Amino acid sequence: MPSYYQDQNFINIAYAVDIVAENHFSDMLFKGDSSRVIYASNEFAMRERARQAQDNVSTSNLNLPFMNYRTDDYRIDGSNPRWHVRAYTSGAYIPAIKQNIVYAPLIIEYQSTFWCNRDDDLRYAFNELHFDSGNKTTLVPTVSVAGETVELTAWLSYNNLEFDPEYNETDWLEKNNIHSAVLDFQIETFALKSNENIILTEEVVFDFAAKHGLEEGTTYDDAYTFIVDHLNETVTQP
Question: What pLDDT does residue 197 have?
Answer without folding.
Answer: 86
